[in-house]
Amino acid sequence: MSTSAEQLTRVVLAFVPERVHNRLRFGKPVRETVLDRWRSMSYFPPGAVFCRVCWLANDYGTAVWNLSVLQAGRAGEPLQRMAGVMPGARRLLHVSSESKVRRVLQLIDEIDAVGIDLVAVTVAYWQLLHNRLVIGDPLPRYTLERHAAHLAGEVFR
Q1: pLDDT of 99-129, one tens digit each?
Q2: Selection from 24, 35, 31, 39 nearest residue 9 by Cα
């Protein structure tokens, strides 16, 4: 059964050298469309998890750093609206400073390095990571043991 175009979450990505770098760090779009030489669009089915990283620069260097782990919504679910994501998505994790973006990217790289598919990481981990970043607590690692427990249906802690 295919997902109709109306049910897909559309994500605009952009790259303008030395000004805008808006890309996916992970995620498996079902379709991608090139809009022009600077922009493209990725489409995700309901429930899909993906990570979007954005840097915006001015004449003095990088001014804005954002990283969001998002989950494409299902019909009838409340969604958070954000620029470049239509009609919106469920925000699992969001950080917006250079140091926090770098910390999360490091954790993502560690998960990737041990061979865990990033889209298969439990939603609860991204939410926990977000909450820990907000209050300044130590960040938990996502280990093979935690992933195995998630796949076995055990509660994540």
Answers
A1: 999 999 999 999 999 999 999 999 999 999 9
A2: 31
End-to-end CA separation in angstroms for the chain: 34
Longest Cα–Cα distance in the chain: 50
CA dihedral 25→43→143→133, nearest 10 degrees, is 60
Answer yes or no: is pLDDT of 137 > 70.
yes
Instruction: Provide the 10 A C-beta neighbour count for residue 60.
Output: 6
- SS3 call for 79: coil
pLDDT of residue 1: 43
The owner of tokens 């990088």 is 62
Q: How far apart are CA 104 and CA 94, in angstroms?
A: 10
